[in-house]
Amino acid sequence: MQLPFAESYKIKMVETIRKSRREEREKWISAAGYNLFNLKSEQVFIDLLTDSGTGAMSDRQWSEMMLGDESYAGASSFYKLKNAIKDITGFEYFLPTHQGRAAENVLFSVLIKEGDLIPGNAHFDTTKGHIEYRKAFAVDCTIDEAYDTTIEHPYKGNVDVEKLEKVLRENPPSRIPMILITLTCNTSGGQPVSMENLKQVRSLADKYGIRVFFDSARFAENAYFIKTREEGYRNKTIREIVHEMFSLADGMTMSSKKDAIVNMGGFIGLRDEETFRKASVFNILFEGYITYGGMAGRDMNALAQGLYEGTEYDYLETRVKQVEYLGNRLIEFGIPIQRPVGGHAVFVDAGRFLTGVPREEFVAQTLAVQLYLEGGVRGVEIGALLADRDPVTRRNRFPKLELLRLTIPRRVYTNNHMDYVAVSLANVFERRTHITRGMRLIKEAPIMRHFTVELMPA
Ligand SMILES: *Cc1c(COP(=O)(O)O)cnc(C)c1O
Description:
This protein is α/β, with parallel strands linked by helices and about 450 residues long.
């Protein structure tokens, strides 16, 4: 018999989680303004809100914490991290930041000005926030297939090179400070970008004299998909693939809370010294001195170790297979999800799940609330709430997809938890035709409203 798949680690420490009763959850979600971000974590049984900073560090990472050098300048932890980043990404220059959006803030302070265009595949929400805050525009050039959840396409994170070239052709290079590629593409469902596509983007960028940056939070999961799906990469190691990917970029921003499996941290990687020097000024201003940039020495140590663990094939296989396991359970129940299943999350197609709820009533948010009520499972809306209002017209933007993201923390839950989640959602699916009303807004912030919004049943 072929041996079955099993996790590439065992558990050394556990944390108790508690189930709750439906009546308790009804009270809690109402008090939270029907915003799952407002729940206390103890009111949640299985927390699939995000994979950001929620992973379980390894015994080796915890050992590294004890070796942290907390010197203000020139700490050994800084050099340990610098070497790890150079080793894994190839970038000569790096700046630590307290998390990914801080890296965006520092880098964009140097490169982006009012009226600029930043084309790429679908930009992440904080990235878009930092672009629009500077009165610049994020231009989504993702392939159309990404927005049809029923199409099986191996690289739904890919950039449509014709859309991209149109932007580059019709605008002066002075208005396009960079092309920004998100790996994997969170917004389209944790979907990978192929190496071939990265190469096409690079050659277009060269043709028009534009720089390419990677928003790299899930670069290792992207590399796993290249290895397992793309012709010519099966026999390459993850680290070889990662090197090749980054060789196509001028720089990167990183949220280390994802593929580097730490609870907090980020960085910028750069090839050219001039940008590094300019960015250093903003790093000191916003984050901290350039050899710690908002991170404790112990955290830089754990991050350096996490970069190595996060780029091991066995770990990545365990990781992606668990996400796929949940996806397959949902498919068995007939629940519509983004196909194929992405790297860090299962994206439930709420628009096709709750066909009776009008899109003005926040379909995916409605489904997220229903799933919480059913089983105490917390997912997150990727739909009209997240899409926010148009910065110019202030009208609600309705994205192509209303998605409920079930995001799996790294090395945290077992497949029994995945079964529990699947059955909870299947129970909602069974009564879906009775759900015909959604949510309406009662309070919202001027930007990135989804974090703090308050709603009530329509
Ligand atoms: C999480 C994330 C960010 C922002 O990083 P934080 O660490 O949350 O500030 C940026 N881009 C992508 C693709 C991300 O997933």
